[in-house]
Specification:
Helix content is about 10%, strand content about 55%. The protein is mainly beta and about 325 residues long. The chain has a domain of about 100 residues. It has a four-stranded antiparallel sheet with strand order 1-28-27-26. A four-stranded antiparallel sheet has the order 2-3-4-5, with no helix packed on it. The longest helix has 17 residues. The chain is globular.
Length: about 325
């Protein structure tokens, strides 16, 4: 049956609206232990499940719906039963590439940073460090953007491009405690309370100072540096300008995007709009990440995503 162009257009619009309003979902083999998202890519760490003692890294392409396993199975390590345990502690994603930090412990603990992509799913070792069993992790993985993946070793910040090539290396004035990215920018937090925002080439473009140990959570956005301090206080810094948002005292900020603070309160994943203070329950889950094109969240073995229009409507209509 032929359908007129007008009717076909209306049907297509209805289909898009329906898809935008529905949660898309994939199932993880084991409980989701970590979740990362950049653009239309969501990466998650699937915990052990019957028949497998080790975790797995999966990447979900939200454009084509593909779900990819990255890296060989970690059972080869955990089956050896290292006395200090083994596993994967953190993941980051940029485009079709994931970066993850693994360890295996004994008298000494080996820490290895791996990367892989959907086109080259076999893992490649990026960094290796061996430390005393009771020493803290020597490699700290940051939060990636659609373009870059930052991490740090001591005072050194290293940034990878989404294609896996090295973008630059930057030396901080002190030990780096955390890194995060937005587009080509990277924010590096240094022990003692300083935070340095780096440009695409690794040049310092802004410096912020906080009381030592005050920053609980953080995000880098187009509007500036966003930090959660104690008692639910969230500050948005852009140069000398500071805007303050108040969350419940027990809330934990998960992310920030386009004027919305995403946070967790118990099992609730909620959002607050900075402009007018509107606040809404979005979904229930253990992990949540907000991007300019939507939100991904995880609960038990389910990883779900909602479109940006669905997310904003939930808050604006509250």
């Amino acid at each position: 049956m032929r359908v007129s162009a007008l009717v076909a257009g209306l049907l297509a619009a209805a289909a898009v609206a329906s898809a935008a309003g529905a949660d898309r979902m994939v199932t993880s083999p084991g409980r989701v232990q970590a979740l990362a998202r950049s653009g239309y890519s969501a990466a998650f760490l699937s915990g052990p499940y019957p028949g497998h003692c080790g975790p797995q890294v999966r990447l979900w392409n939200l454009v084509n719906g593909g779900l990819y396993r990255l890296g060989r199975h970690t059972d080869a390590v955990c089956n050896e039963g290292p006395s200090g345990g083994s596993g994967v502690t953190d993941i980051a994603v940029a485009g079709n590439r994931a970066l993850w930090l693994a360890y295996a412990g004994g008298n000494l603990t080996d820490w290895i940073l791996y990367t892989a992509s959907t086109t080259r799913p076999t893992e490649r070792q990026v960094e290796f460090r061996e430390v005393d069993a009771d020493a803290p992790p020597p490699i700290l993985l940051g939060v990636g953007s659609e373009r870059v993946l930052p991490y740090s070793i001591g005072r050194t910040v290293k940034v990878l491009k989404a294609n896996g090539a090295r973008a630059y290396t930057w030396q901080a004035p002190g030990p780096v405690t955390n890194t995060t990215a937005y587009e080509d920018q990277v924010a590096a937090f240094v022990r003692g309370g300083k935070c340095y925002v780096l440009s695409r080439g690794g040049r310092v473009t802004a410096t912020y100072t906080f009381p030592a140990g005050a920053v609980q959570e953080f995000a880098l956005a187009g509007t500036g540096l966003v930090v959660q301090l104690r008692q639910g206080r969230v500050e948005i810094h852009r140069g000398a300008s500071v805007k303050t948002v108040r969350l419940p005292a027990t809330a934990r900020m998960l992310d920030y995007q386009e004027g919305f603070v995403l946070y967790k309160l118990g099992k609730q994943i909620r959002a607050r709009r900075v402009l007018n203070g509107k606040d809404a329950l979005i979904r229930y889950g253990t992990h949540g990440v907000l991007e300019h094109n939507g939100m991904s969240y995880a609960a038990d073995r389910k990883v779900s995503s909602i479109a940006w229009v669905t997310f904003t409507a939930r808050v604006n209509n509250s």
